Amino acid sequence: MLTWLQVIAVVGLLVAGAVAGIIAGVLVSRKNSSSSSASSSSSNSSSSSSDPSNFDKDENLHVSFYGIAYTPAGSQLDANCGNSLDDIIKDVQLLSQITTRVRLYGADCNQSALVLEAIVQTKVDLTVWLGNYISATDAGEAYERQRDTIKEVIQTYGTDHIGGITVGNEFMLNYVESQGTDDVTGTVGTTGANMLITNITDTRSMLSDLSVDLPVGTADAGAYFNEALLSEVDYGMANVHPWFGDVSIDDAATWTWSFFQENDVSISDEVSNTPTMYIAETGWPTKSSDTDSESNGASDASEANLQIFLDDFVCQANANGTEYFFFEFFDEEWKDETYGGVEGWWGLFNSDRTLKNVTIPTCD
C-alpha cells in the first residue's frame, strides 16, 4: 500500500550531519560498553526496576502472532528523527509479549541499532528483519546510506537477532505505477525488477565482505511480484489487505489466505530457488479520520471488526503454516496527519501503547 511506505527523504546537510552523529554515538557507545545495559535506565512505566529486562508482563497479552510489522515512532528523516532508545525499549517489552518476530521498513534514523540495542537490554526472544527502503529516483542515495548503516549495525551487534534484510518496500508497485502501468510481467516490470535486483546483489556482496550469511529479500504489494524478481531473492514479503480488496470482514481471513496463495506462493513455486513467501502486512483498520473512508464498501473500520479478523485469521494462519507479519504494532499519528482516512489507525495498540478494545487470541 503506497501510503504505508516509511517516508525516506533527502534532507539538508545540517539534518544529515545530526543523524550521522546520532548513529555514530549510539554505535560507538555500544562498542565501548562492557555490559549489555546502557548507563541510563529506561523510563518505561511497565518496568519494575532500572533493569529493562525486569518488566511487568500484561496478562492480556499472549505470544500468538507469527510476526508484527513495526516502525519505531519518530523514525522518518523528514521529521528529524525523533525516535529514542527509551521509547523503543518500551515497544520491545510489549512486542515480546505478543510475538517473537518483527519486521522493519527502513534503516534511517538509526532504528536498526536502536531496536537491536533494546533487544539486548531487555533480553527478550525477538528476531528482526531489517529493512532498506529505497527509491528509484535518487541515484541510489537512500539505498547506499541505509546499506552502510546496516553494515555497521551487523558489525556491532552480530546476527543473532537478525532474520534477514529486506531490500525495498513496494518498490515494484511504485515503479510500475510511475510509468503509467500495473503490468509487472512486461518490459516495465522487468526493468523495475532489474533495478531492484542490482541493490539486492549489492547487499549480498556487502554481507559476503563481512563473512555473514543472512537471507536477503524484498517486500511489495501482493500483486506486484514477478518471476524475474523472485528468482533472485531468498524470500518475498507480500502486503495482502482485505480492506483494500473491498472484502467484507466476514470473508476477510479466507480471502487473505486465498489471495496470498494464488498471487504470491504460486509464483514462488514456479521459480527454481523457491523463495520463502511471507505475508508482509495484513490487518484491519479501527477507524477513519473522515467519513468518506469509514467503510471499504463492504465493512466498517472499527475495533469490533479488527477483533473479528484477529479471531478468524491469527490462530488459523499459525495452524496452517502461513508466515505473516500482522499490521501493525501501534497507530502512527504521522500517517494520519499526512494521508488521513484510515492510514494512521491500523495498530493493535493506540499510539500511547495502550491496548485497543480487543482481545489478543490465545493460540496453541
Name the helicity range: 25-40%
Q: β content, as a range?
A: 5-15%
Shape: globular
Total helices: the number is 10
Task: Give me the strand/helix succession.
Answer: HEHEHEHEHHEHEHEHEH
Name given to the CATH architecture: Alpha-Beta Barrel
What spatial order of strands do you see in the largest sheet?
1-2-3-4-5-6-7-8
Rounded to an integer in angstroms, the radius of gyration calculated over CA atoms is 20 Å
The chain-level structural class is alpha/beta
Please explain how this structure is put together.
With 364 residues, this protein is an alpha/beta fold. It has one domain (2-33, 48-339): TIM Barrel (Alpha-Beta Barrel), CATH 3.20.20. Helices cover 38% and strands 11% of the residues. It is built from 10 helices and 8 strands. The chain has helices spanning 13-32, 85-95, 111-122, 141-157, 171-178, 187-209, 227-230, 252-270, 303-320, 333-339, and strands at residues 68-69, 101-103, 127-132, 162-169, 216-221, 235-239, 276-282, 324-326. An 8-stranded parallel beta sheet has the order 1-2-3-4-5-6-7-8. β3, α4 and β4 form a beta-alpha-beta unit. The longest helix is centred in the middle third of the chain and has 23 residues, at 187-209. Residues 1-29 and 31-47 have low confidence and may be disordered. It is a single-pass type II membrane protein. Residues 32-50 have a biased composition (Low complexity). Belongs to the glycosyl hydrolase 17 family.
Short characterization:
The protein is an alpha/beta fold and 364 residues long. The chain has one domain (2-33, 48-339): TIM Barrel, CATH 3.20.20. It is built from ten helices and eight strands.
